[in-house]
Automatic annotation (TrEMBL), chains A, B:
Top-rank taxon: Bacteria
Protein name per Swiss-Prot or TrEMBL: Crp/Fnr family transcriptional regulator
Domain HTH crp-type: start-end pairs: 154-225
Stored CDD domains: CAP_ED
Length: 233, 233
DNA sequence: AAATAAGGATGTTATGAAGCATATAATAGA
DNA sequence: TCTATTATATGCTTCATAACATCCTTATTT
């Protein structure tokens, strides 16, 4: 049965929850729905690769996508994660450049592909859409600038603590304060910009300092205020 | 005579060279010119500060502006420099946040202030303007992402070489390959994300390796291909 | 022009973090 | 279920770079 090709559910094709599309007219929204294509993607799938030409952007309706750049000898630098309600691939599309990042599914995902033509149609016909889009990019730019400052000025220890707190803010926790997103130590290292061993060591330290608890890849927060102090925030 | 208040010249109030405004109608351009305010700023002047509320964005018609964030114990992180033809302060304005950077004049400048109202008017009435604006932000976002990868993965030596090459691409050279922009070693350090002493040492090394020549703050490029190799590009 | 401050150069030392080696544990594929 | 592969853990070593101290030089200010 596992080989049966599943179709996206209603929830997974529904874009009405996206802030970005809130100000569309009924006609525009209909058109968007008509022209979009939704698909399911298994963990590990590459959505697009660095250097490829994009034909549209994607709306994430389920799962988690890792966006990263490939640096020196193949080392990944994770730029961000995209989850439900967020869009990916729009940057390269808008600036009409080849993709400068790779997008990989890390939690089984559902994505809706919106063709470039549709994007352009919306930009041309609805200033509120453009305005919203501008705000999304501007916010991401601020985050990038903040990150540059952190990475340039903070220690690995501080950055790791900060990354953990960021994950806590942006991803689901279960009722026991355990992060539901599952990342390898290497992925954490690729966010922080350090070596895998350093992350392993520091996580153990955080654990013995009773800031977090570790069970495999699951991270449970025990003392957020103390972790915030470690992050130097 | 030095206390005489100079008015901006015609060239310094002329926005017709800006790509961003190329697609405005005559009426829109007239309105822009009517609502803008141009002024001259001496080196050292702060245009806006982190945390302040902005009332508009600025078009740089002369000089160089340093955009930076203040990190741990006041250490500056330089985000970028803006020169003639570029705009500043638009990011915070568009996302309706308080300024997250400070802008300081490092070469006597002329700026035209464009009120938020005018920006909104243009966004609402001219989709090509919005589209152009989107492209500007998207391009800056790519640069920020590239920079994150560099700073996270490259050595200080590589980053310094790269920064020098970036300056070479983006700022004027005289006929002897000497950079006209004048930066202190500390400012270079604040771009690269390192200590001032490290920049001093590495610049001397580059000099003895015959990659550059130094005379005070003036940097002359002797061997760009070799410098590119050092930058690991 | 003298005074004061700011920037630059260099040696020395300290240390955070990377790199390597190796062992164990966990996960996924056949 | 067994095996192969990948991830995690930990010790040890090395190295790049930060931090500190001091001296020298170049700008700014009065």
């Amino acid at each position: 049965m596992r080989s049966a090709i599943k179709r996206p559910s209603d929830e997974e094709t529904n874009l009405s929850g996206f802030q970005l599309f809130k100000k569309l007219t009924e006609e525009e929204f209909t058109r968007l729905n008509y022209e979009k294509t939704c698909s399911l993607y298994k963990k590990g799938t590459i959505i697009y690769r660095e250097g490829s030409r994009l034909t549209g952007f994607f709306c994430v309706t389920r799962g988690i996508i890792k966006i990263f750049k490939t640096g020196i000898d193949g080392k990944e630098q994770i730029i961000r994660f995209a989850k439900k309600g967020e869009i990916i691939a729009y940057r390269s599309l808008l600036s009409q450049e080849l993709a400068c990042t790779t997008a990989k599914v890390i939690d089984d995902a559902a994505l809706c592909h919106v063709p470039y033509q549709t994007l352009l149609y919306l930009i041309q016909n609805n200033w509120q859409f453009s305005h919203h889009m501008l705000q999304i990019v501007c916010r991401e730019l601020r985050e990038a600038n903040d990150y540059i400052t952190d990475i340039a000025q903070k220690t690995v220890r501080e950055r790791l603590a900060e990354v953990l707190l960021l994950l806590k803010e942006n991803f689901e926790l279960d009722n026991q304060n355990t992060l539901q997103i599952s990342l390898t130590r290497e992925e954490l290292a690729n966010m922080v910009g350090t070596a895998t061993e350093s992350v392993i060591r520091l996580l153990s330290e955080f654990k013995s300092d009773k800031l977090i608890e570790l069970q495999g890849r699951k991270i449970k927060f025990l003392d957020t205020p103390a972790l915030t102090r470690v992050a130097n925030l």
